[in-house]
Structure formats: structure tokens, C-alpha cells
Amino acid sequence: MKTALGSNKLKELPIVILSMSRWDSPISSASWSLAKEFGKNNKVYYVDYPYTFSEWYRGRNSAPIQCRAQALIKGDQQLRTILTTRGGIVKCITPRIVFPVNWLKKGWVYNVFSSFNNKIMSAAIRKSLAEDKVEEFILFNSFNPTYLSNYRKYLSPRLSVYQSRDAIGAINAYTRKHGSYREIEAIRNYDLSIATSQNLSKDLSRSSGVPVLLFPNGGDTELFKIAWEMDGGAPAEIENIKTPIIGYIGNICQRIDYVLVKKIAEAHPDKTLVLLGPREDKIHTEIDLDALPNIVFISPKKTEELPMFLRYFDCAIIPFLINDFTRSIYPLKINEYLASGRAVVTTDFSPDISDFRKHIYLAGDHGQFVIMIDQAIRSNSKSAYQKRYQAAKSNSWELRVEYFWKLATNTYEAILKNNSW
Predict the structure, then answer these.
(1) Beta partners for 18?
(2) pLDDT tens, 330-384?
(3) Using CA atoms, how far apart are residues 129 and 135, in angstroms rounded to an integer?
(4) Do residues 318 and 331 lie in contact, with contact meaning Cβ atoms separated by under 8 Å?
(5) Strand, coil or helix: what is 292?
(6) 357-360 — which CB contacts under 8 Å span 24+ positions?
(7) DSSP 8-class letter at 7
(8) Distance CA 322, CA 367 (A)
(9) What is the β-pairing status of strands 15-19 and 43-47?
(10) Residue 287: exposed, middle, or buried by beta-carbon count in 10 A (0-12, 13-18, 19+)?
């Protein structure tokens, strides 16, 4: 039986983070942002989302795979240091190549190969922790339930945490096939389960029969503050735009109301609509956004580059659909937009976004959204920037981590009280 730890000792433990995002992904993610915040005081091991054989083969000549070649093929050099801070450190763990199992039906064949993948994943974690002589750790599965949903077969953390960040069954065919039921398994198996939105917390608590606590997304408010606090030239992609800019940052995916996007572009021919992020619009709509002359697409950027773009946005938008999927979303971008001082116009897609109504322009329909854009642009001033930043600051990742430790220590103390160790 393990010796009990005090709350302060628990907070000092290394944290192993699983996610659907890799640390060097061109798309910003909540899991990587949280890892960096934890890394200010703790040693963090961020586990690469595994590459399958097919993914490795297709991208074998790409820079991300080339820099991981030894780890993926031979299982060597699986541990690397990514960030060092004053009080902690963030390292990356790269598992060996795993079997492509997404296409398999639910059943014993999928379970067998999924088990192989879990062994590959956990072996990389155990090897890396042993290399650093780490025996005690916290396992934090940030929305990757298809791996290690039943982690106890493979790992022995001091505390385990599962985090849900979206309605997983609504993301794509793969997550509908295996993610939904694996997520319920994870919630039932992990010591503490948290969710980023109010509806997600309620829905998963009801579906799993286990309390899933609310733990909203945060924002790197000090990073995004530079959008209004410091001067700087426009990035090359937008330096020649002479009109006011209506900007969106994020995935251009199934969440987007493309009818609304078209209406915005057509109703504001004197402005430029800049959409920055990975494009999936041609998968989800027949509307040809490329045919609209005042829409500009920009490829994904690292989080650290985003404030330079936001500085030149006259307003920022979240043109999400209103449906069962989006009602469970607490968008990472809301705190980033506000911290950068931007006026935000958004659809009223979830209770979480409605909670920001004092600080944003919340549109009830398409017509109102289009009208609010001009209102938002006219509202800009240095004092407005400061007020929006202050609204975001109360949701900083720093404060989120403080709240996480409160949830974690309460859970751990309850485990001790119930003599679970």
C-alpha cells in the first residue's frame, strides 16, 4: 500500500498529459496551453498523440515525423525536453508507431489491437519516467479516451484525471464509433473527471453516472495582452489589407455557420473577412467561400504568433452554428480574443458563451450578427481594450491551474478517507 501524500506534496508531483494534440501542432490547443502552465511549477511529460503506420508512411518525409524518426521506428530518443521554466519543465514523450484501428468495428478485434496500442503508449511512458527516475506522478488524460481509458492495466499514477473538452461523438465518424463509449469508460475509471463546459459536465455526469466537474478553458492573457499594449508591424499576410478587418481564428470546420459567414462577407463589402486556421470548409458546406472577393484565408499559426494578427483585427467573430454539438463548447478563443482587447461578435451557441454577455456582442440571429459588427468596430478604444483584458484575466490559465489543484487535492483527500490506497 502506498504511503499517503500531503496536499503540498501532491502538487509537486510530475504530470503526464495525454491529448489528441501534439506539442508542435500548428493549431493551438487547450491541452498544450495547460501543459505549459503546469510546467511553470511542475515537471510535465506531454505525450505525443501517437502516429499510426499509415500516418507515418504518408508523412514519412515531413519535418515533424523526421524529427521523431528514432522514437517512432526504434523506440529510441522517446523523451525530449521542450520547455524549461523557472520552476518546472515540459518534456515530450513520443510512443512508437501504433496500429491504425479507427476503421475497425466495435468488438473483440478492435479491443485486441486497441490493447496493443495501449501497451505501446504505456511502455513509452514507463520508459521515459524510469529514465528520469520518476516513480510517482499524476496522469492527466486531456480528451484522448481511445487511449488508456482503463489505465490501471498499464500504469499506476498517484492520481488520475480525465478531461472532456467537446461533445466527442459529434466531432467526426471516428470519434462517434469509438470515442463516445471510451469516454464513458474513462470517466468511470479515472479518479477525477472534469469538463470544459456546463452542458458537457451535465451530459457526461448523466451518461456515466459519475460526477463530472466543471473546469472551463482559460487563456494566456499576458501573451495576448501584447496585441493592444505594444506596437508592431502587420504580419505579411495582412499588411496589404487597407480595409477594416473582421477576423476569425480557429478551425474552419463543422462548427461554422457558413450561411452566416457568407452573409457577413456580402453585407460588409467595405471590409475584409480574415479566416485564420486549418480549412475544412469544403467538407462541410457547398458554399464557395473562395468566390467571395473580400474573404482572405490564412494558414494556421503558432499561439505565440496570434497576437500580432489580432492587433490588426477591428473586431473578432465566433460564427458558430447553434446545435447539440456547439451547446457543449467553451471556446478557447473567447479569452484570447478578449485579452487581446478585441471587440467580439458571436452567436449565442452555448450557456458558456452567454456568460460573457457583458463583455461581447451576443447575436440572436444572422441579421443581428451582421449589424453588430459595425457596432463592435465603433466601440474600440484603449479603455475598451483594458476592460476586455480584465474580463479575460479572471479566466487566465494561471487561475485555472490554481482551481485544478483545489479539485485534485479534494479528490485525493476523499480517496484517502475512503481508504482506497
Answers:
(1) 47, 141
(2) 999 999 999 999 999 999 999 999 999 999 999 999 999 999 999 999 999 999 9
(3) 7
(4) yes
(5) coil
(6) 358/391, 359/387, 359/388, 359/391, 360/334
(7) H
(8) 15
(9) parallel
(10) middle
199 Cβ neighbours under 8 A, 6+ residues apart: 327, 328, 350, 351
Residue in 176, 158, 157 with CA at minimum distance from that of residue 167: 176
List the grid coordinates of 374.
459595425
Tell me which residue of 354, 351, 360, 346 sits closest to 327, measured CA to CA.
Answer: 351
The residue ranges of every structural domain in the chain are 7-218+397-417, 221-393
Measuring CA to CA, how many Å separate 38 from each of 95, 188, 191? 22, 25, 19
Residue identified by cell 479566466 is 395
Single-letter code of the amino acid located at 177: K
CA 12 to chain centre: 24
* pLDDT tens figures, 248-289: 999 999 999 999 999 999 999 999 999 999 999 999 999 999
Question: Of 238, 223, 246, 225, which Cα lies nearest the Cα of 302?
Answer: 223
The domain over range 7-218+397-417 is classified in CATH as 1.10.8.60:
no
Q: What is the assigned CATH class of domain 221-393?
A: alpha beta
Contact yes or no for 45/125 (Cβ under 8 A):
yes
Measured distance CA(344)–CA(387) in Å, rounded: 13
Residues 6+ apart with CB under 8 A from 414: none
Residues 89-107 have a mean pLDDT of: 94
CB distance 248 to 316 below 8 Å: yes
Cβ neighbors of 153 (< 8 A, separation 6 or more) are 118
CB 361 within 8 A of CB 378: no
Distances (CA, A) of 363 to 10, 188, 260, 370: 44, 38, 11, 9
